[in-house]
Specification:
Blueprint (H helix, E strand, L loop, with lengths): L2 H7 E5 L5 H10 L6 H10 L1 E7 L2 E11 L3 E9 L8 H12 L4 E6 L4 H5 L4 E12 L12 E5 L2 H15 L4 H10 L1 E7 L2 E11 L2 E9 L2 H14 L4 E7 L2 H9 L3 E11 L10 E4 L7
Parallel strand pairs: 4-5, 10-11
Antiparallel strand pairs: 1-2, 2-3, 3-4, 5-12, 6-11, 6-12, 7-8, 8-9, 9-10, 10-13
Helix pairs in contact: 2-3, 6-7
Length: 286
């Protein structure tokens, strides 16, 4: 089949609920660890496009809209047998057309970077992935004035607000959905909410994130609380690059396993106040 004949036979169409099974099978073939439940969640929070050849799913790209001006692009994948034929570019172009006028973020592999640079994306951060079987840990020793509290109904709005303050981005829909499927903890400092951490089943075991805190002391208290609960389990966490935090995670059994390049098209709003992102929920949604 000539390249032009192949291109004409590729159909790019909106992603459907029924595509989740094929997307999961494709992601498994290319070595990703997401379960079909993870795919249902990712697709349910966003939208996007599928590429098919003779009704076979050969590529996917999804996106998630945050508030009035920001979106994230992710789950970009093409069957190994059909790479290098422009499928990823077609899928991305359809998403970019839908999202025209918004600031866009994504996390890219080194191999995928040229696809995005060509379309005006620039690097803005590096995400470090840590994963492994959690070692037995003691409960965190909290500084005077710090208290860890379980997340109850009253805390949900507080967590949604803290997530937005830490990034400047309204991820309330995603955060609300994560709260429905996660366990977690709220950090209260001198009577004031000052951070949170969530963890849930994801991929090969559990994912810790998002995590929001004002400083590394609070961040470690929150993450250690989650890791104590996950002792002996396989877990993963994705953090903005921090040698100190990476070293501590390595010691906890979550070894560094790879990096992703955060890329931006447009400008992200600034964080509002002392809270900052410590760990992201997924590399797809940020």
């Amino acid at each position: 089949m000539s390249p032009s004949d192949f291109e004409h036979k590729i159909v790019v169409r909106p992603f459907r609920d029924a595509d989740v099974v094929g997307a999961h099978a494709l992601s498994t073939r290319i070595g990703w660890s997401q379960t079909i439940e993870d795919w249902h969640w990712l697709a349910g929070q966003g939208q996007g496009y599928a590429a098919t050849l003779a009704d076979q799913l050969v590529g996917v790209t999804l996106y998630w809209i945050f508030g009035a001006s920001v979106a994230s692009i992710g789950a970009v994948m093409v069957d190994d047998a059909y790479r290098g034929r422009g499928i990823a570019g077609q899928l991305l172009e359809r998403c970019l057309a839908d999202l025209d006028g918004r600031s866009l973020m994504l996390y890219a592999t080194e191999a995928g970077k040229p696809l995005y640079v060509k379309r005006g994306f620039v690097p803005f951060e590096t995400i470090e992935q840590h994963q492994g079987v959690v070692r037995p840990l003691k409960s965190p020793r909290l500084p005077a004035g710090d208290v860890l509290r379980t997340i109850d109904a009253d805390a949900r709005e507080i967590i949604r607000n803290m997530a937005e303050l830490a990034s400047g981005i309204d991820r309330s829909k995603v955060i609300e959905s994560l709260l429905d499927r996660s366990d977690g903890v709220l950090l209260v400092r001198e009577g004031r909410p000052s951070g949170f951490a969530l963890y849930r089943r994801y991929g090969l075991g559990f994912a810790v994130g998002p995590v929001v805190a004002e400083d590394e002391t609070g961040a470690r208290s929150l993450i250690q609380h989650c890791l104590v609960a996950l002792s002996g389990q396989f877990a993963r966490i994705d953090i903005p690059s921090s040698p100190e935090m990476s070293g501590w995670l390595d010691e906890s059994g979550l070894r560094h396993s790879g990096s992703a390049l955060g890329m931006l098209h447009g400008a992200l709003p600034p964080s509002l106040g002392p809270l900052r992102r410590i760990a992201i929920a997924t590399q797809a949604t940020g």
